[in-house]
Protein: Armadillo repeat-containing protein 4
Amino acid sequence: MCGSVDTLGNRQTANVDSQLATSLSLNSTYTSDICISGLCCHTSAVMGIALTRAAQWTTAGSGTGKLDITPNNESLLKEILQFVELFSSRYPQEAKHVFNEPLQWCTSLDASDFKEGYDISGTTVKSQETDVNGHPMLQLNPPSISVRNFSQLSEIVQLAKEKKLKEVRDCLEANRDPAVKMLGPRFATVGGEDSSVLRLLEEMKEGDQSKEVTVKLFLLLQQLDTHLLSSSLQQISQEVRLSPATVKNDVELLNRVGSEGENAVLKGIQYTSDYVFINGCRTPPWRQVHGEICYLVIQTCDTEPLHVTCSTAGVFLNGGIKPGQDHAYDRTSDVYKDLVTLLKRMSPHFAENINKQDFAIQEKPPSTQKSQHVEPVDDEEQGQPQRSYEHQEAYVQQKARQQPEKNKPGGRKKLEPSLKWKNLGLASPHEEAGGNKSKKSAANEKTSESPEKMQKKTDFSGSSSPGRQSTQIKTLGAGTSLQDYSESSSESEDDEEQPERRSDNNTDLPSEYWLIQKLVKYLKGGDQKATVLNLCLIMDLNLAQETCQLAIRDVGGLEVLINLLDTKEIKCKEGSLKILKEISCNSQLRRTIADLGGLQMMVRILDSPDKNLKCLAAETIANVAKFRRARRTVRQHGGIKRLVELLDCAPDAGGLMETQVKEVEMARCGALALWSLSKSTRNKEAIRQAGAIPLLARLLKSPHDNILIPVVGTLQECASESSYRVAIQMEGMVQDLVKNMTRDNQELQMHCARAIFKCAEDKCTRELVRQYEGLQPLVSLLSQADNKQLLAATTGAIWKCSLSMENVAKFQEYRVLETLVGLLTDQPEEVLVNVVGALGEGAQRPANRATIRKCGGIQPLVNLLTGTNQALLVNVTKAVGACASEPENMAIIERLDGVRLLWSLLKNPNPAVQAGAAWAICPCIENAKDAGEMVRSFVGGLELIVNLLKSTNKEVLASVCAAIAKIAKDEENLAVITDHGVVPMLAKLTNATDDKLRRHLAEAIAHCCMWGSNRVSFGEAGAVAPLVRYLKSKDLLIHQATAQALFQLSKNPNNCITMHENGVVKLLLDMMGSSDEGVQEAAAGCVGNIRRLALANEKARYD
Structure:
């Protein structure tokens, strides 16, 4: 943003002057052309267009427009604010220009905010600066303020301090087209061409130089508007927009997949209109102008029918489209990016079962369906897109058309299956026959090859006829289960497919490329000595250079190197592994190595008696196993157990024999390989079952950093599993992690901190870290702020350790919060998430809340509420909510408009963010000076929070109920939420079984009973009987809230009858003996109301 301001500030003056000089110096004809093309056509873009089209406005009941609280609007306001702040210093002449009409709005400033340069009389303020008629440039009659030039506008934003953004918002809301008041009606926002500026320039040419400042000011505002539009366009262009074709495809897919068969996730989905316009839309033309594409009625398996509007901005629920009911078009839910996202939110059954559907292969009649060969994906990899072999063939054909055809007979290239399919045996008999021939011819060129390498191939045979396919799989080995062929869906694919980077002009290739090609050819045809010599020559080249790496692959060197692994010659194997270890750092090559069966060869080498070969094989596996399929291959072929065996050595320093040194090196290489493999959930379990934990614990005591780094890296990767966290505690590794954190190696410190970050989820580990004095080293690592990875790991460990209040007290002694507050700015999001999380936990203690305020931490926390990182927003809401428990902090939050930002987060689609925002709103309402008025000032805020009672997330429901209990304390707000239907929604939730939700639901019902006939409505909605069952809970807090709710409900006779029928009296009598006075009074009052009703009935019967 600063860069944007610089652009506007430093360059605008030159641009304005040059435009103006050009316009005035040219002849009249050419001047007219310039004006019309450069100015008049864009007259409509003088702040009006940006505010009308780029800004996002809401509409209140009265129709008055308000700027919505969105990231786009916040960005626009900040740009305008900085433009106004710096205007007086950069353009002093234009700043003095008197507006045609004053800008007027309701301000939060009062007379005490004004100092020198103003005449203050009671609450009235007038500026000493006046126009030629003696009118003050600024006049304040609270709450109204009027301003006549930019100089005073700049002064106001300076005086407003933390409230300056709010002042800009209020000013723009009150002056939707500010250029009209600044420059006159001729500059009103219009469409098309306008000759007003042309006439103004003609007046300047006639000698009226007073218009020069007006034109300069116009140009400055025009450039600001253009910049605002450009910024908004960049942000809007990043949003996903739906089209009629996209919606049609989604509907067809859901109809085909979701509503057929035994595992249907929907009952049906249909359009409300069968007529399709030429543009693909099914909505009336007068609704298409709003971007609406079609209306759907979706029958789910567990909810009422959903009436859905699909628009270019997304999909949302409507009121049920019916002829003659315009209000039915109104949006009744949040906007979602597509139909699947909406259905996941609205239908728990759909959300639970949609992931079980296979979208990649849909059976169609043979006459209309193409034959597809799809790579098998097991249950844990359903989260990854499946790539059909048909798509791969199309890609190969496209590549073939792009490459020269001079060496191809007939100009065509024979397509061959992927190397991966050949390696697995997934080829037709004809392809296998052809493949065998090529292998035989290649075998004639190689020497010293083992005759056994053509054996032990998995045999697959398949029918190519559509609709019928048979497969035979040989036994894979003892102990191999189907689970070995699936992988974790939680892990990310470390290596994405890298695009091929080939030069079309061979002359651009370095000489090493051609040298490697020659050496590989000699490698194919030489004897044993020649092979070793060529391997040595290849190793002497710069194999870290990508050109050399690709040269080996292009000439078929990878196949030769992998075949050498199957020979009996140690030197050939060693040379081949050394080369493979270097070039496997290339993501394209490591995939090719896996496709060619190289990993299987390396796993077998781990059984070799030669320790050098074991080390090289393990290191190469560590490089290749960077993607999911490679990790699975190593596990399936027994590589994990062999790698774990390499860890069995004596890591003690001093006096090691040569053989022991080699064992330590094997342990290091084995740990490196296990580190790469541990990114898979199944591999983590396999590593544990192979007995790696005690061996890793022993290696953790090593004095060598090069061993410790892969060992700790493996542990911190595996610590995401609870079984590993328990084992780390039981094996005493926490003490070693704390000790190694003090070593002078930042990479080791980072991995130790990450391990503590993951293990500190358990309370026992947090206590052990404190017991072994690990908190102080963590605090000292905060000084390494330049290393962002280390800083992220350290702040993460501090955050998790802060979950224990004993650790928070220690951090308080070490003055950690002061340091963390300083890290709230200019840090990557990974660090901010952890810093804010630690502050949120620390703020649970009152003393720390005061510390955060004194260190200036409230404002940066509130500023982070405008972010988009979901994890960060969850932590920020918790931190702001904790700080708001202090009235002094709450005053700052309210002044910074923090409550409005929290309320806007209730629109966030992430339930965790919604819940965090609702929890944070509770202390804000409780500690605000005029909470009722503050809540009412949020346009649509009460309706928004009531609608969240439709959520299916228990945490969201509990937090919203807690917020409603606070809101309902204000009578006017209670009346509004009652009109929005809060009573039936709360009553519908009373059958909940979650104790946390029950407690806050009872509190909300108790406070909502205070208005009108809500008590009667709760009884009619069936909320009384479920509340009685709450008293059977063992939670005292539920007893307190339920007793208050029943006391309020018992003021209605029919509710008393329902309570008595459900056995409430006995339960209340027990509660009357509670040690809590509030519970006693509420229980006694409820029993008293029931008794008075009974006495009244008795009296009426005898009378």
Q: What stands out?
A: The mean pLDDT is 77. Residues 211-237 form the longest helix (27 residues). The domain at 244-353 is CATH 3.30.2280 (copper amine oxidase-like fold).
